Amino acid sequence: MKTFKRGGIHPEENKFAHDIKLEDFPIPKQAVLYASQHLGAPSTVVVNKGDKVKVGQLIAKGEAFISANLHASCSGEIAKIEPVADITGNKKQAIYINVEGDEWEDSIDRTPDIISDIRLDKNEIIERIKSCGIVGLGGACFPTHVKLMIPEGKKAEYCIINAAECEPYICIDNRIMLERGEELIIGATILRKALSLTDVYIGVEHNKKQAIPHLTQLAQKYAGVHIVTLRTKYPQGAEKQLIKAITGREVPAGKLPIDVGCVVDNVSTALAVYEAVQKNKPLISNYLTYSGKSVQNPKNYNVRLGTPIMEIIQANGGLKEDTGKVISGGPMMGKAITNLNAYTAKGFSSLLQMTQKEASRMEPQNCIRCGKCVSACPMGLEPYLLSVLSRKARWEECEQNQIMSCMECGCCQFTCPSFRPLLDYMRLGKNKTGAMIKARAQKK
C-alpha cells in the first residue's frame, strides 16, 4: 500500500454512514442559490424577478476567467434576487426560487442508461464542463474547466482521482464508488481525455473494503484506469500528500500540482463531469453525509443546491440537546456553521453535528517542547515556532519559516498534549503573512 512518508495522524474514523445507501433529499419549497458558489469571481445573475425557470436552466453566468456558471436546481418562479447570509454569516447575492413541481430542461438526459462512449473531443469536453458549472467538490470549489486548461510551458503527466476520503465521519465518496462506480470511472476517463493522457489513477484508502474490489472489477472494462490502494492515514486526501503517495513526486512550497505534472480531481467531481459530458446535466445538486455521534440515523443524501440547512437537520430529528457545534465538512478541516439559516451550495459534502464534549476545548497549558506537532506536520513545518511568531505578530519571520505552506490540516493541534491552539495561530499567521506578501508585490 502506498502513502506519504512525512507526518500524518490517525484520528478516530467514526464512519457511521459507511453502509447507508444514497437517497434523494426532498425538494425544498423554496430554493436559495448563492451567485458565488466557487473560487474566483462571483457569477453574473442573468434572470429577473418573476421569470419562470426549469431545472438546469442557466441563472448566473461565470464571466471572469476564474468563475463558474450557476443553474437552477429547482423549477418555479424567481421570487427575488437579494443578498442573504451564507454559513459564515457573510451576505452574498442570491436567487430565490419558489418551487413549482420538478420540470427539467429538455436537453438533459435523465435516463439511467450508462453511456461509456465519449464522443466529445478534448476542447468540447472542457467547454461542456464549463457550460455546466462544474467545480471541484472536494472542498475548494475551483472551476474544473480552468484546471483542465494547462498553462503554456506546463504539461500534465498524471490524472489523479482523489478517493481517499480521509476525514472522519464523511462517507459520501465511498457510497459514490459503490453505487455510481461505473459513472465515476467514465468521468475519470473523460478527465484523462481532456488532458490528452492514456492513464488515470484512482487513489482509495484501504479502509474502503468494499469499494476497492468493486472499482477494480469495473476498471477492467476501461483501459488505462488504475485503482491504487492507499494506507489509511490523515491527511492522505490532501493534494500534495496524494501526489506524493501515488507518483512519488513532491510539490515544492508555493507551487501547484501542475508544476510537477499532476491534475487532481475529487470523486464527486468526476461523477459530475460524467453527468455533464455524457448527460448534459449541469451541477444542480450535492452529495453529502449527515452524521455525528448523537445522530441516531446517519444519512448519505443527494441534495438540491439551495436547500435550507435546517430542513436537513429537522428531517433527522432536529438538533440534539448535547449538540455543541454544527460543521460543514469534516471535524479536521471543516467550517463551523455560524448561521444555520443558510442554504446548501456546491462543495457542501458533509453536515456534521458535534457533541458538546467533542466541540469543547481543553484549557491550554504551557508548551512542554515534546515536538509532537513537528512529527505530525505533513508539510515538515515547526508549528510550535510558527504559532509563537504569529502570536507575536512577527510576520516576516513567519514567511521565512514557510508558514504559507501550511495546509491547515490540524494535525499539529490534534497531537498537542498541552492543548495549545496551534491551528488558530497558524491560520492567523497565514492570513497576515499572505496580506503582507500581497501588499509587497503591489508596490513593485
CATH architecture of the largest domain: 3-Layer(aba) Sandwich
Distance between the termini: 48 Å
Number of helices: 14
Q: Can you count the beta strands?
A: 17
Percent helix: 25-40%
CATH topology title of the largest domain: Rossmann fold
By secondary-structure content and strand pairing, the structural class works out as alpha/beta
Model regions low in confidence, pLDDT < 50 over at least 5 residues? none
Radius of gyration: 22 Å
Specify the CATH homologous superfamily of the largest domain: NADH-ubiquinone oxidoreductase 51kDa subunit
Shape: globular
Strand percentage lies at 15-25%
- In what order do the strands lie side by side in the largest sheet? 1-14-13-17-15-16
Mean pLDDT: 95
- Biggest β-sheet description: 6 strands, mixed
Oligomer: single chain
CATH top level label of the largest domain = Alpha Beta
What's the structural domain tally?
A: 3
